Fold this sequence. Notes:
By secondary structure, the protein is α/β, with parallel strands linked by helices. Helix content is 38%, strand content 14%.
Amino acid sequence: MIFIDPTETTTQSKLPEAVVRAGVVLSGLERMTGADFLISPLSSPTLKKASPAPIHKIALQKHTQTGLLVQRKDGNDLLSSINKLTSILARMLEWAGLLPPWLLVVGEFEKSKQGKVIANGRASKWNWSSYVGALDSWQLKGGGLTILPRESDVPGWVNDWHNSRLSKTIDDPDRLVNKSPVSVTLSDEWWSFLAVLPGIGPKKARVLADWLPVSFQRPAWALEYLSDLSNLKYERPKGFGRGTFETIHKFLMLQPDEMLQVVKRKDDSK
């Protein structure tokens, strides 16, 4: 079953007509979950609206816990939303279950000689580093990402998820998540993930990993530590000065008074 927000049925929407025709309009979907559409492996419970009322919220959660929440962006729409992606992802993470919230980007993006983004053949004011940093940040914070060059590729992508990949996810969640397109390849050492962060690199990543307490030996906790500028007041690992913290803080697109916070899931053993 495919649920779509009512805004995706308007003339302003660029969601392919084939997807709109196959979908069930769910009033309030984006307002509640932050997603433009939801691909669910369930045929019931049937929903007509997304409401904070307990009965509607519980019914919607049955779909989001086993389905895929998707935020779709194309060309200049993506670039103009760069500063909003963090808040969009945070709302989607509250509803996501087996699968991470997904960002579906449609369009062709190139880097100009001046270091700006060329989206679908048109120059923009955005720096290439901002574009790449926003997509990396989405993934580092727990989101999935797919970039399709053409709008005509979207129905096939949706169909693949709906008819094949979701069923595999329910049987074996890790089987699909590990195939998700990400910009970081993890090795056996969890801290190798930190090496891709600006200003870190392999050497400093290992230094930080050795310095962190045992209870913080996980990527999410390490990111929380690096995102908290108040840690500058205390003892820090060698080489981690104000510049490093401020670079990571900016890369994560946080406001001066913001930091990441690890939310402990019910199934966490620690």
